[in-house]
Predict the structure.
Amino acid sequence: MSIAIMCSGGDSCGMNPAIKSFVDYSYEKGLQPYFIYEGFEGLIDNKIKKAKHKDVAGILHLGGTIIKTSRSKRFYEKEFRQKAFDNLKKYDITKLIVLGGNGSFNALKIFSQEFDISVIGIPATIDNDIYESSYTLGVDTALNVIINALDDIRNTSSSSKRAFVVETMGRDFGYLAAVSAITSGAEICLIPEAKINYESLEKKLKKEIKEGRDYILAIVSEGTKQTDKLVLWIQTNLKMQTRKIVLGHLQRGGNPSVFERRMANEFVIYSIDKLIKEKTKSAIIYKNCKFKFIDLETISNKKQVLNKKIIKQLKNMIK
Ligand code: F6P
């Protein structure tokens, strides 16, 4: 029996440990593992290869993905999905694991409804925005990268009496910004899920400045599209020299944390066991310290909601 794995969408730390677990555990279970290179694009173009133990030797500690990834526009056309399925048939691949985020799960849902293939999506995105899952592969390392950057920025900020406005990724989900603001002790945090009260924030920060505060660290989630506005607001209203830093793709770098490596292994083992046991069209999620499967149909129509506790913890950073 043949089984394949691919990565789709933005890369995230934890993909390589997952790929290694996939190869090791597939062989242990008597399955023939295959790699699909470059995501759905590679599937359409038949970039499929038998996976061997030696392919995954020495990759556990690496960020990114050795089998590459892509965002595929062509996969949204039926003609190319047919091509993709025909390619899988050439290798007798009847089981497929996709490491990716919401867009990839949606593509996988459509594909599995149209063709006779058993599929599981493993949440792998730094955004941590998969419905019902409290964790996605890559978010832990991304947060550590952000926190290290913020610690460094605070050093220069406090030395030069400046404000720094730091933009984090996360699309329209404020998790990365909120958690990094809380754990770095930021003074301001802007996320799509919480409205900022500029009036009371100004009053509070002006009082602090009067009492000796001489620097400010502000974290903005890219989804707010308010980074430049906040820079201008600090300069104008708080009269503090302000610099903007967009962390960008740095957040997808780094080496997978220990937690990421453990979770990658668990996600893969649960998924392969399920694919061996039954036909499925699902995604695996992690909630309340347990692994669970949800239909792709259900998951792809729902949006993740930011935990209320996290929003509550931001109260001093938004007013
Ligand atoms: O979904 C992961 C993510 O890193 C988002 O946080 C970000 O908005 C987006 O991907 C960036 O995409 P790209 O790498 O295609 O520029």
DSSP finds twelve helices and eleven strands in the chain. The radius of gyration is 22 Å.
